[in-house]
């Protein structure tokens, strides 16, 4: 779940791609190096075991989402893993696939793993249900350039398995509505080839990312070159180490110079420079109004899969990272039920190498370093959860050699702050929730903070808490329904010879709307489902999502009181617009389709209010320092005198917040750091490629006195 950025969907004429083998897609991002880690190709790092350990280790992984399971997989892959490594993995979501809760008519039982999450709509409560559709609430599409993602998919499903293109807006007949302006396009073909919308996208693309060949056009060059040219070098396997080191330094300069710009500021700057090249708009009085109109128009259309207006406050650095991560298509996974099957099978794949894994259904409330205890160097305090999802009253504890926190920022900040940030003096304090704590006489030893950078000074340690706490998490929500094809298609217009409109991007507050793939489990319903669309009515962010929150029935998953929500949705899509074919004004067909079709199995999900998964990370202006600090946190392992036994793994602690690729990268970072720490700071315990994960990034420990 993250922001898709594919300018090619709007501008480049291309044919629909056939199904592809996983091995083919895995090649797309095999050599890509992200600008913040320009010397590291993560798929090459994980091709072989990351390194070795030669002593028994008891490890805790808190959180069983994508990052937690990837951490487990890489630990289990290590040589002699079964001999030396045992793992406890904690998960508090009783709907997680590792747990077995009660089922409901709309159910999430066994369908969740952090942000990889789904819901099934059914006629009756399980087990006698007839499944209608599987709604992918999170992680529904996967970029072809996500090298780690497809490397792991090959490991789970085999390289010969095939996958299909996800029907993003722009890959299917798509309609855009801004004000009363309506546009239609697909694969670079537009109903109006001279459309101002098409032209503004072209202007912004050239002004931001520039051109891969020819003259430089970007107003935001990296080292004097268009970012498109830098992207080509980052993807090319033959780019030399010297060139990559240069890019690394150029990107560092770029981040310092541009972290002050929002995406909106960058878009406005480009339009101000190029407004004469854009068509005049009737009714606008002057240049200032023209510029503002085009800023808002681009805010609606974005780069094809949904507008950026609601996230215009994001840092331009975040957008540039996504533009450098250049790709053409996103794909679905070859799953039989839901995308959570991928992580479930990934978990089982890890267990093939090392079955010394214990799953704990529990909520962790505190984690600390622990001195003076023979059982381990860290303590985890938790509350067990029963099969019905109810917490036990009494706190439990366990000691470990190392802990990987694969938790969201909201969770992590609550785990690490209670004992303060002084790392010089260990102390004995109560641990756990107010009113039901673990007293000091119930554990052996004394405690220090979990996340530390200094033995002597409090401030370096407290800035880690600040970095985690101040991560900007995007408000995000989805609204689904199933609709009869005949009902919807009777309203949807045709676009050229491409077929009926299947995706809508508009400024009505619903974000993006489109027909999405859905797996039907029940054979009877599978036959019936041929007559239905699984429809993502709204995928919204920030202000659009917040604007709908008061209409949601039950947080975070709305399985009751849907009539009020559906009425609000129809209300947003009701307006008069100008028909782009005949130029007449009339009711917008989309509002008519939603209002007059029978919308079955409605479901809404508000990610913002969900504790263990949350929304997704998106840096605002000034956030780059904290983001980069957390991404490099594992490098503290190079300073063994610090006696730091904790590591972070989550997409929010990466430079690709929201994408599984970011979660997997942070997991690799965490395991590499753990291996180095377990070998007393010896980086040679890592494989040759894995050493880059620690050595090529700046060490976070500035002063370990």
TrEMBL record:
InterPro entries: FAD/NAD-bd_sf. This is Phenylalanine 2-monooxygenase. The lineage of its organism: Eukaryota, Metazoa, Ecdysozoa, Arthropoda, Hexapoda.
């Amino acid at each position: 779940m993250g922001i898709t950025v594919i300018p090619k969907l709007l501008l480049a004429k291309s044919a629909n791609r056939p199904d592809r083998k996983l091995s083919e897609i895995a090649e797309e991002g095999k050599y890509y190096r992200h600008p913040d880690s320009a010397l590291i190709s993560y798929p090459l790092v994980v091709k072989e075991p990351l390194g070795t350990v030669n002593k028994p280790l008891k490890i805790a992984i808190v959180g069983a989402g994508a990052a937690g399971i990837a951490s487990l997989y890489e630990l289990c892959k290590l040589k002699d893993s079964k001999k030396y490594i045992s793992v406890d993995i904690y998960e508090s979501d009783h709907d997680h696939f590792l747990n077995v809760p009660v089922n409901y008519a709309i159910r999430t039982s066994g369908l969740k793993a952090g942000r990889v999450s789904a819901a099934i709509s059914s006629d009756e409560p399980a087990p006698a249900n007839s499944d209608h559709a599987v709604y992918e609430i999170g992680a529904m599409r996967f970029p072809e350039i996500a090298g780690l993602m497809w490397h792991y998919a090959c490991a789970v499903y085999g390289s010969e398995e095939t996958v299909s293109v996800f029907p993003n807006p722009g890959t299917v007949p798509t309609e855009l509505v801004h004000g009363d302006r309506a546009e239609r396009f697909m694969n670079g073909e537009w109903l109006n080839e001279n459309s101002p919308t098409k032209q503004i996208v072209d202007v912004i693309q050239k002004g931001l990312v520039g051109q891969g060949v020819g003259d430089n056009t970007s107003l935001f060059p990296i080292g004097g070159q268009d970012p498109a040219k830098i992207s080509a070098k980052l993807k090319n396997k033959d780019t030399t180490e010297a060139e990559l080191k240069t890019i690394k330094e150029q990107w560092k300069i770029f981040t310092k110079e541009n972290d002050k710009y929002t995406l909106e500021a960058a878009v406005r700057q480009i339009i101000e420079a190029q407004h004469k090249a854009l068509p005049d708009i009737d009714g606008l009085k002057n240049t200032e109004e023209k510029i503002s109109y085009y800023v808002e128009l681009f805010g609606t259309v974005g780069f094809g899969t949904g507008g950026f207006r609601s996230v215009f406050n994001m840092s331009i650095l975040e957008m540039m990272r996504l533009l450098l991560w250049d790709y053409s298509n996103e794909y679905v996974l070859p799953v039989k039920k839901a995308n959570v099957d991928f992580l479930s099978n990934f978990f089982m794949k890890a267990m093939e190498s090392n079955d010394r894994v214990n799953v704990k259904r529990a909520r962790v409330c505190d984690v600390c370093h622990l001195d003076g205890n023979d059982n381990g160097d860290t303590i985890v305090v938790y509350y067990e959860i029963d099969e019905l999802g109810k917490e036990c009253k009494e706190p439990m504890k366990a000691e470990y050699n190392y802990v990987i926190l694969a938790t969201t920022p909201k969770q992590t900040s609550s785990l690490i702050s209670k004992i303060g940030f002084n790392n010089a003096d260990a102390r004995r304090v109560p641990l756990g929730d107010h009113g039901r704590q673990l007293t000091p006489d119930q554990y052996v030893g004394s405690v220090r903070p979990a996340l530390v950078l200094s033995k002597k000074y409090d401030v370096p340690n407290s800035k880690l808490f600040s970095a985690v706490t101040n991560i900007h998490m995007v408000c995000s929500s989805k609204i689904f329904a199933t609709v009869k094809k005949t009902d919807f298609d009777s309203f949807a217009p045709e676009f050229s010879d491409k077929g009926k409109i299947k995706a809508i991007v508009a400024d009505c507050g619903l974000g993006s709307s489109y027909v999405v793939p859905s797996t039907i489990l029940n054979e009877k319903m599978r036959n019936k489902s041929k007559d239905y669309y699984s429809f993502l009515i709204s995928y919204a962010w920030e202000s659009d999502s917040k604007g709908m929150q008061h209409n949601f029935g039950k947080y975070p998953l709305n399985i009751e009181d849907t009539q009020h929500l559906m009425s609000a949705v129809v209300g947003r899509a009701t307006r008069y617009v100008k028909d782009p074919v005949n130029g007449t004004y009339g009711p917008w067909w989309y509002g008519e389709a939603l209002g007059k079709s029978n919308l079955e199995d409605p479901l809404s999900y508000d990610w913002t209010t969900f504790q263990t998964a949350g929304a997704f990370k998106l840096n605002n202006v000034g956030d780059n320092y904290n983001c980069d600090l957390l991404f490099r946190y594992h490098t503290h392992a190079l300073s063994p005198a610090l006696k730091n036994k904790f590591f972070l793994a989550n997409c929010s602690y990466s430079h690709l917040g929201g994408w599984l690729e970011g979660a997997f990268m942070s997991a690799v970072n965490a395991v590499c750091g753990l291996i180095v720490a377990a070998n007393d700071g010896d980086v040679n315990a890592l494989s040759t490629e894995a050493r880059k994960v620690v050595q090529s990034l700046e060490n976070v420990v500035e002063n370990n006195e």
